[in-house]
Amino acid sequence: MLATKKPTKRSSACKCIVASAVLLTLLVASFAVFLHIHVTTPPLSNVFLSQKFFPPGQQLKLKQRRVATVTKSSPSTLCDGYGVLRDFYFTKMGGVQCAQLVWRSAAEFEEGDRYIAYLETVYKAFDTIAHAEEYFVKFWGRHLYDPLPSYLYVNETETAPAAGDAHRAFRWDVGNVVPGMPVPLQAASTPRHVVYIFREGRFFVRIVMQAFSNARDERLSVETAGRLAGVVTDLIRSNRLPEWQERFRNIQSSCQDGVAKLFRPVSKAFRKRFASARKWFKGKMTSIFESLSHKDFRWTFLVVQDVRLLLIALVVLLHNRFNAFLKPYEEIMKARLFC
Questions:
Q1: Distance between CA 153 and CA 212 in Å, rounded?
Q2: What is the pLDDT, as a whole number, of residue 1?
Q3: Residue 123's beta-bridge partner residues?
């Protein structure tokens, strides 16, 4: 009988190394797939307010509707003008989509139940709830000048109806300006209006409701804006992702942020190395061309011209060979067509 060869320690170690390498490769590939799985979310338009939710008798007409989705190639200023002139925090805090809808009244003055001249809603969606919370905290501050500087508003959050997970409500009325407060000319001519902002899950929403010029209808208040915010909150909750998908999205976003922080130094070092190599190559090429005399340069030009002619001849030859190869098939196709 043939003697069976016993496995040596070296072969066993090699098998362990190969198995570990295969397992590590599978883990890395699975993690990469996990990072790039796309969770389909309901469209942002599902949570938009429409005329059926407005108080009756307003005669509001939709004048503007725009939606922008953030991609890897999108500029950082993509959502500027959506509720704030310069949005410094949106792209830094995981903003994925923004939208703005503007309604204006067809009338020029208030009458009867008509007291809203202008209504604007701004929606911003984020990749995680944590990013939406951070954005909500930093949104209202000294940097905000739209529609007016934030210091001019009266904070009425405590008396406003609550909507979403967190909310704030503000009112502007030129008649309530504190004596001695500097008021810009733009503010003095701006009609009375209220601003209501809130956060529900991954969504940030801002509602601006403005009265007609010199109008004093008390129904234009943070209470009315709060009721509309409650409608938007219900729409968001009815279109919310299942709980397991929300958890998956949060874990995925945390992993992506961790990987980005981990590879940021590596990417920085690689860019630095590439820049130095490009600088070295550029310097070498510059020194070579500077060292050429006029005669040598003329000779180099002639060589380059000969190479160009040779390439043209090769392209023509390949074109003719390709046509000769396809000619029998063209004749077959013609014969079939005529038959």
A1: 18
A2: 45
A3: 99, 205
Q: Do strands 166-172 and 154-155 pair parallel, antiparallel, or not at all (unpaired)?
A: antiparallel
Q: How do residues 10-35 score in pLDDT, each as one tens digit?
A: 666 676 776 676 676 766 666 555 44
* Coil vs helix vs strand at 195: strand
Question: What's the predicted TM-score (pTM) here?
Answer: 0.64
Amino acid letter at 45? S
Q: In the chain, how many H helices and how many E strands?
A: 6, 7
CA distance 203 to 207: 13
What is the CATH number that goes with domain 44-241? 3.40.1000
Predicted confidence band at 339 (pLDDT cuts at 50, 70, 90)?
Answer: very low
Asked if 191 contacts 209 with a C-beta cutoff of 8 angstroms, the reply is no
d(CA 229, CA 223): 10
Domain ranges of the chain: 44-241, 292-339
Residue 72: strand, helix, or coil: coil
What CA–CA distance (Å, rounded) separates 283 from 221?
68
Residues 155, 172: contact at Cβ < 8 Å?
A: no
The span from the CA of 271 to the CA of 278, in Å, is 10
From the centroid of its chain, how far is CA 85?
16
Q: What is the pLDDT of residue 195?
A: 94
